[in-house]
Amino acid sequence: xxxxxxxxxxxxxxxxxxxxxxxxxxxxxxxxxxxxxxxxxxxxxxxxxxxxxxxxxxxxxxxxxxxxxxxxxxxxxxxxxxxxxxxxxxxxxxxxxxxxxxxxxxxxxxxxxxxxxxxxxxxxxxxxxxxxxxxxxxxxxxxxxxxxxxxxxxxxxxxxxxxxxxxxxxxxxxxxxxx
Amino acid sequence: xxxxxxxxxxxxxxxxxxxxxxxxxxxxxxxxxxxxxxxxxxxxxxxxxxxxxxxxxxxxxxxxxxxxxxxxxxxxxxxxxxxxxxxxxxxxxxxxxxxxxxxxxxxxxxxxxxxxxxxxxxxxxxxxxxxxxxxxxxxxxxxxxxxxxxxxxxxxxxxxxxxxxxxxxxxxxxxxxxxxxxxxxxxxxxxxxxxxxxxxxxxxxxxxxxxxxxxxxxxxxxxxxxxxxxxxxxxxxxxxxx
Lengths: 179, 242
Description:
The structure holds 2 protein chains of 2 kinds.
Chain A: H1 2-6, H2 11-24, H3 30-41, H4 49-59, H5 63-72, E1 84-89, H6 92-96, H7 99-109, E2 127-129, E3 135-140, E4 152-154, E5 157-159, H8 164-178
Parallel strand pairs in A: 1-3
Antiparallel strand pairs in A: 1-4, 2-3, 4-5
Chain B: E1 5-10, E2 13-18, H1 23-29, E3 53-56, E4 62-64, E5 75-77, H2 81-97, H3 112-119, E6 136-137, E7 143-146, H4 155-164, E8 169-172, E9 179-182, H5 199-203, E10 209-211, H6 223-236
Parallel strand pairs in B: 1-5
Antiparallel strand pairs in B: 1-2, 3-4, 3-5, 6-7, 7-10, 8-9
């Protein structure tokens, strides 16, 4: 994974970055727009170190400031993301309806047990990707759908009143759909 | 440009200040001492450490002296039991956040954090330590960055951006995961922007940034040199000095 994150952007990606920079030229907060465009155009929905370096060179923005912005906002990923993104809400309402168990079972089911889950106990941001890059498990502080707790978002589709069975079924369907 | 003179009360004493000054600058100009940590004369003020808080008559909120502009008729208290309590708390929380082991630190007895804790009469910390596992960057040929001793005051970030103009440092991530990073979190020795001038080392209030080759309590910082340089450059650039 390290290698793909370090790779310099190819000609196509460079063109895309140039275009994004030209589009945002002169606008305040241009960096965020550039980073967002570049990330959403990436096949694995992440910002590689190579592309960050290229953006720094092209815009003249100090690399440290770009890195700071990219790590401050939870929107930006510095690691390749899975094809399917499962996002478990860790807000208070979802927590009281058992979202921690959901998250742990989900990680176990996807073989993400080697990861340190103790850090997820406080409502921390988390983004784990399976080695085959099929699934990414993320957490979020709140979706604002507390009446439907516990809430899980699967590929930008919100599931409400989720229990282990429905979540397992969903993951299974995604696995089969992909294979 | 002539600045307007305004009159304010600091600790009950009627004093004059210049419009545009911060509370801290006005207080220091009149010989009043307010403790600071993230503030360094010559650099922009960010109000990160909350140690310079003061009481303003008419409001319950405590205001950071370094970032609050002084205004006509303000009545400010720079010392009180409440302020001491909050300043102690701010320093205690800084001490809790990383691994500040004074006895093993290059800056022992020349450390602004340590001196501040002593002057506030801190004998112990009431909160439990975080004990984070953080790295030490020894890759630079002349300097060391020890995250264990960093208090995220961002003096290094500002001195590098505002005085040296190299923009090597920035704060990455957020909350308790915040770290000072150079370039794209590269090793300090590998950063292309770093000129190796060492201003960040001199500006650092603790032992987080230090020169190599110094043993325990041998590292003496010259932050006033950074201030002098910053003011000279601001003067040359024609912008009003801070």
